[in-house]
Design brief:
Blueprint lengths: L6 E8 L5 H14 L5 E8 L5 E3 L26 E4 L8 E4 L6 E3 L2 E3 L10 E4 L10 H9 L8 H8 L1 H10 L7 E4 L1 H5 L6 H15 L5 E5 L9 E3 L2 H12 L5 E5 L4 E8 L8 E2 L3 E4 L9 H5 L5 E3 L6 H17 L5 E8 L5 E7 L9 H8 L4 H13 L7
Parallel strand pairs: 1-2, 1-8
Antiparallel strand pairs: 2-3, 4-5, 6-7, 9-12, 10-11, 10-12, 13-14, 13-15, 13-17, 15-16, 17-18
């Protein structure tokens, strides 16, 4: 009797964005939690220069150790590269430059298919541009490879905070005030013409109407990289220039007084409505005045309160709004929706993350753990949801 093979899962991580290290940490946490009795795992790293490589299946090497951030380059299998193949009627991701009949993973020889298109599902644990923004999803669609999480449209809309907020507002979801600073608006001042000066003044006047302080962030980024707080116009210009190092389009948001609250969402089972976890209040550690990269990933005293100390009716409202935000961008698989909760009890939707962090410090797995779904079962549900897709454009 032939033993039924395990479901093959390619865990893809790393990437070209500034969130490369966060993606590696997420992958390490998932690799440690995934049920090896059920799944055959193929770790696939995307290096900072865009090369795809087979990676060592060693979760410990993808953890933050002594303040040092992990990378794909540090865990890449020597001589292995992966490419997309679309010609001659073949599709999928193909291993090149390595022995496709077997590869040494975690001290054992594991059969790795020559074409990674034979993999049953890809779990794309990439954060930020070149991965979470629909680009990777489009590649996988073209290669005919099934994958977990949001499709091309939802990924792109979820990454671009301008269009995300436009969609939320169009669907009647409450959002805070903001101003978009486009590249042509800001660069126009370099031309030193009256029209350029007028355009710069228009942008600055719009931002001034938000009141001070404001938060300045790349429009298409995450993990608070490139985000800063400006208390006046002098700090604003420096903050915009800092954000522009990561994205030529910048979002300036009014500072909302109150709690930062997050809520995790999963696609419904068998076509049902999405499910929302218990929400969490973010408790910022260290000396940071807001939830920046340092406090998110490197401060031991950063944490969450699950559920947050707010009325039960408001907790339920947050869960409903999280599902509404999930549906608004046509999200699939999983997402984390972030909120502001004011002292007056007003709830504002801040943003949606279509591939939330899965690190040991990330709120997404913690919220589902508190809601009765531990990480191994959470990963299993995400994979099984993806396997249930028919493989057509979503």
């Amino acid at each position: 009797m032939t033993e039924r093979r395990k479901i093959r899962v390619a865990v893809v991580f790393g990437g070209r964005s500034t969130e490369h290290a966060v993606s590696c940490v997420s992958a390490g946490n998932i690799l440690a939690a995934i049920d090896r009795a059920r799944y055959e795992v193929i770790p696939v790293g995307i290096a900072r220069d865009g090369r795809w490589v087979l990676a060592v299946d060693d979760p410990a090497r993808l953890a933050i150790t002594g303040g040092e951030l992990p990378s794909v380059e540090a865990v890449a299998e020597p001589g292995s590269e992966i490419a997309a193949r679309l010609d001659r009627g073949e599709s999928g991701l193909v291993v090149t430059g390595a022995d496709a009949a077997g590869l040494l993973l975690s001290g054992q020889t594991s059969a790795v298919p020559h074409s990674l298109g034979q993999v049953d599902v890809v779990l794309p644990l990439l954060h930020g541009p070149y991965g979470e923004d629909g680009t990777l999803q489009g590649l996988l669609e073209m290669t005919g490879t099934r994958y977990a999480g949001a499709g091309v449209l939802a990924s792109a809309a979820g990454m671009d905070k301008e269009y995300m907020k436009l969609i939320f507002a169009a669907r009647g979801l409450p959002v805070g005030p903001y101003v978009v600073v486009r590249d042509r608006d800001w660069r126009a001042a370099d031309l030193a013409t009256p029209a350029a000066a007028t355009e710069r003044k228009r942008v600055l006047d719009e931002i001034g109407e938000l009141g001070w302080p404001v938060f300045v962030k790349p429009a298409r980024g995450g993990s608070s990289i490139g985000t800063s707080r400006a208390r006046d116009e002098a700090e604003l210009e420096a903050a915009i220039e800092g954000a522009r190092q990561h994205d030529p389009k910048v979002l300036v948001e009014s500072a909302i007084e109150g709690m930062e609250i997050e809520c995790a969402v999963l696609e419904g089972i068998d076509g049902g409505p999405p499910d929302a976890s218990l929400p969490a209040q973010v408790l910022v550690g260290g000396d940071a005045g807001y939830y920046d990269f340092q406090s998110k990933y490197l401060e031991a005293d950063t944490g969450v309160a699950i559920p947050p100390p707010i009325p039960a009716a408001h907790i339920e409202q947050i869960r409903q709004l999280a599902c509404a935000a999930f549906d608004a961008v046509s999200c699939e698989g999983l997402a984390r929706v972030d909120f502001f909760y004011t002292p007056a009890g007003q709830i504002l939707v801040n943003e949606i993350n279509t591939m939330p962090g899965m690190t040991p410090a990330s709120a997404f797995p913690m919220m589902w753990e508190a809601s009765g779904l531990p990480l191994p079962q959470l990963v299993d549900r995400i994979i099984q949801t993806a396997l249930g897709k028919n493989g057509l454009l979503r």
